[in-house]
């Protein structure tokens, strides 16, 4: 009996605290924040004519299915590379790791990246960039794919909430230069969560 109790304790220590639970309030906070940013002329990426009529972005209904606790594997011996963008800018990134997760029983994996320049600032030193495309792209969601912001995890699991997926700024204006989603981050599943296409 003692051995079983110790095993349960070890499992709780190793895995229990790394698992995060889905919170609808977190998604609502994200939606409120991004809508406020877009409505404010100082922070909005919208064109002047779109800003005049802007009320709110179009989101998929909040769906717990698209919140996952992924297995995180840190990359080894990766080289810094220039990520292609929609403009002439070529920011430097490094592949930081791979996340593996399940949606409706099927397994998927994506690469997560770190922006070299951003990682030098205190605010973004733990920031990870997750760009992805999926089967909704060009239909219900932006043709160029979407992004999710993450933080470097302390352990080997990382919570990913696709309900907080957002469009690159170039989805709203030609003035912006945005990272293009790498081909290896194209998911063969419809991620019906997060921000939908504009217009």
Which features characterize this protein?
alpha+beta, two-stranded antiparallel sheet, 3 helices, 19% helix, 199 residues, single chain
Helix content percent band: 10-25%
Mean pLDDT: 91
Structure classification = alpha+beta
Beta-strand fraction estimate: 15-25%
**What is the 3D form?**
globular
Count of β-strands: 7
Query: How can the largest sheet be summarized?
Result: 5 strands, antiparallel
Oligomer: single chain
Distance between the termini: 62 Å
Structure write-up:
The protein is built from 3 helices and 7 strands, in the order αααβββββββ. The strands form 2 sheets. Strands 1, 2, 3, 4 and 7 form a 5-stranded antiparallel beta sheet that branches. A hairpin with a 2-residue loop joins β3 and β4.
Chain-wise SSE layout:
Elements: H1 2-16, H2 24-39, H3 48-53, E1 67-74, E2 81-82, E3 92-103, E4 106-115, E5 127-132, E6 146-151, E7 157-161
Antiparallel strand pairs: 1-3, 1-7, 2-3, 3-4, 5-6
What's the short story on this structure?
With 199 residues, the protein is an alpha+beta fold. It has helices at residues 2-16, 24-39, 48-53; strands at residues 67-74, 81-82, 92-103, 106-115, 127-132, 146-151, 157-161. The strands form two sheets. Strands 1, 2, 3, 4 and 7 form a five-stranded antiparallel sheet that branches. Strands 5-6 form a two-stranded antiparallel ribbon.
């Amino acid at each position: 009996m003692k051995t079983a109790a110790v095993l349960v304790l070890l499992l709780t220590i190793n895995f229990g605290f790394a698992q995060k639970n889905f919170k609808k309030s977190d998604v609502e906070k994200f939606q409120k924040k991004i809508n406020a940013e877009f409505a404010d002329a100082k922070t909005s990426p919208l064109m002047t004519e779109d800003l005049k009529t802007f009320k709110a972005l179009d989101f998929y209904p909040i769906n717990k299915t698209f919140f996952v606790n992924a297995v995180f594997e840190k990359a080894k011996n990766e080289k810094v590379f220039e990520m292609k963008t929609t403009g002439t800018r070529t920011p430097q990134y490094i592949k930081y790791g791979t996340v593996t997760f399940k949606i409706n029983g099927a397994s998927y994996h994506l690469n997560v990246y770190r922006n070299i320049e951003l990682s030098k600032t205190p605010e973004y030193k733990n920031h990870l960039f997750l760009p992805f495309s999926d089967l909704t792209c060009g239909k219900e969601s932006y043709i160029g794919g979407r992004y999710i912001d993450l933080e470097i995890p302390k352990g080997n699991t990382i919570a990913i909430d696709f309900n907080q997926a957002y469009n690159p700024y170039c989805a709203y204006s030609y003035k912006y230069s945005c990272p293009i989603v790498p081909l290896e981050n194209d998911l063969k599943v419809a991620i019906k969560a997060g921000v939908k296409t504009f217009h």
